[in-house]
Specification:
- The chain has three helices and eight strands.
- It is α+β, with helices and mostly antiparallel strands.
- Strands 7-6-5-4-8 form a five-stranded antiparallel β-sheet. A three-stranded mixed β-sheet has the order 1-2-3.
Length: 165
């Protein structure tokens, strides 16, 4: 069992005990500092900032007692957000009818990215409904998947200049 698999198992168990769903963990580095980002969800409501703080304190104690993460690191706990990662077969079933962006490797070995409505899913694959028809993507070929919001606009609103007479 790899270090990542062991940490995933521990996080999933601990978060379940706290009443949260473990979405995913992401290891990264900013400068010399290691970052451990943990994404959580709640089955009945949105995740609040106080939820993230409480979970961070609980998981911090658990992770500090493990030797799996060596050296100092920052622990960040957050909700999945509007571009929610889809990492488990159950996530695709839960968000059936929503748009998703799925990156995967096709049978030729090429990396592709598709955006479509989640039409159906099972334990092995997801079907995206595209304008051109349906496409089945196996989970073992998937690189990354997220909910996709087409209506996101990022930018500043320009202030109008009023002329005084």
């Amino acid at each position: 069992m790899s270090v990542e698999e062991k940490i995933n198992g521990i996080l999933e168990e601990e978060l379940g005990n706290l009443g949260f769903e473990f979405i995913k963990v992401k290891f990264s580095q900013r400068g010399k500092r290691k970052i451990l980002q943990i994404y959580i969800d709640h089955p009945d409501r949105n995740v609040s900032i106080s939820d993230c703080v409480g979970v961070s304190k609980s998981l911090g104690l658990v992770l500090d007692n493990l030797n799996e993460v060596s050296g100092p690191y920052n622990l960040e706990v957050s909700s999945p957000g509007i571009m929610r990662p889809l990492v488990k077969p159950g996530h695709f079933a839960r968000f059936r009818g929503e748009k998703a962006k799925v990156q995967f490797v096709d049978e030729k070995g090429d990396k592709l990215s598709l955006i479509g409505e989640i039409a159906e899913s099972d334990e092995n694959s997801v079907v995206l409904d595209l304008k051109e028809g349906n496409v089945r993507i196996k989970f073992d070929k998937m690189i990354q998947a997220n909910l996709h919001q087409q209506s996101i606009i990022i930018g500043k609103r320009k202030k109008s200049k009023k002329k005084h007479s």
